[in-house]
Fold these 2 entries.
Entry 1:
Amino acid sequence: MTDRRYPIGPIALKETYSGEEIREFIRIIAEIPSEYRKRVENLSNEDLLKTYREGSWNIRQLIHHVADLQFVHYLRMKKAITEPDYDEVTMIDMNAWAHTPDSLNMPVEASLAIFEGTHTRYAYLAAALTEEQFARRYYHPARKLWFDQKQALAMSVWHVRHHLAHIDLALGNIG
């Protein structure tokens, strides 16, 4: 691996996804919080300060970030299927959020619980979407792309895998 910023590679969205791919995304959404919990539940405060590269967020910040942003992903999907005029995604300043007192100092348990609860609902909601709801699109101004809900789900799965790999790098589990 040459670029520790993207240990699983940069996101590469497809134009369309099959039903089988969507079911796999939903399975990952449902199950990946337990992988995060396994990685971090017994870490010391010192371990939570480890980073995957110089200048990166530490493990504690990554856990809080994933809980925050996965809730935002769930919120975006819910808004997209319930608000006909939701054409531009809700944005946050991720770096600013990663430097708030709760992200810097709070134990990770609360964020693990938020992540688990959000993903339980997120997987349930995604599994219940109709094709019409999956086709609902919105604009992402930072990426300068329009996404449908299948692509948004793919991006969300990439996001949680991406940061799990960052944690593995910080812990020395991968190279």
Entry 2:
Amino acid sequence: MSSTYVIVVFFIAIILLLLLVSKFKVHASMSMLLVTIFLAVAIKTPLNEVPKLINEGFGSTAKNVALVIFLGSVLGEILSKTGAAIKITNTFIKWFGQKKILWAIALSCFIMGIPIFPDTIGLLLIPICSNIAVTTGLSMMQFAAVIQVGVITSSLVPPTPGPVAAAAILGLSLGEVIPWGILVAIPGAIVNVFWAKSIKKYVEPKDEFITEVDKLDNIPNFGKSIIPLIIPIFLIIIDNVVGIIYPETRLNEITSFVGNPLSALLIGVFMAMFLQIEEFWKKKEYRNDIFENALIGSVVPIFITCLGGSLGSFIKNSGVADIIAQRVVESSIAPIFVPMIISILIRIITGSNTLALTTTAALVAPMINTLGITPLAAFLAIGSGGIIFSHANSSGLWLNTTLCNMSFDQGLKSIGVATLLSGLGCCAMTLILYFLGFI
């Protein structure tokens, strides 16, 4: 096969994936599978080998991400169902005061975006923000914008599915990507808040959300709410640090066990159950139903992630990654822009953050050595690009626009611009770290 043929097939495969998802509305998991088969056949893989290689790529990815995504989903379910996420928000509001209410909401979303899907954050916080809007006179456009801070950490900080998948495909440990992801997310969050503060158009809240806060009782205190979220992150980071300072020691053996993402998240789940749910073993909705909901909610991200692994294996076998990477190296383009631009394009075209991160990681992983960038730099570039930007094909934009009583134009100005600017802020931070030689 000539290099020209391989490149043409590669781009046809990507265009086909984008058309299936965005134009023909085929589910992302089926789209990934169909495109993987197309690419396998097009690069002349022996037909009897195609199913085997698809399963191998799927399985090798699943063993790294499936349980982590599931446990992250369980933790998010508990935080949502017990009211712990709301308690965290209310506490920050109390600490920051009325004049800095948007910063309080941003900090809450920043933390909750780590284990909870952005759409769920909107469902949890918009009733609270609606009541705050009545007392402060702030516009729902401002709250809708600042709630998008959750998108930033959901894109850059595990254990939400997108960054978990990207890290696994790129061969990175979560202990390595979590602190760097948080660092890159900070400027994006700051940019977001400043944009929200600049919005002058007043939009009043929906009447049905007023007094909703009065119904929130019997929820855990702040300590019990936030500890199950902080402890897993702390354990994962500690394991990474101890592994560097005290390798091959008994201490490292212990931290490697408790700091493994699987163990750390399981500890977080049990802490949430015991701290946030009184006598949870007597309550079926917590003892059983919450795991059922988490399992259902995690199936789609897991399948998309694992099929991304299958697609990535054929991309690697085709040699197209090396060809494209070599062309980039020979040009004047800085290699860091390759994963960033691909992620931005897939996010904009499909409207899916998870699909952008998973697909881009699968496309870029085989290129990394030739491009001469580190897996960490690629991860941060992909995560930053995957934030940009929510528009008409984004379910999150429609959900938040509806709940915040906005028109589509108002939602696009509030949410769309917020994700655009915050994503650019994260991209800028990634580029600074890259060109200064930190990543």
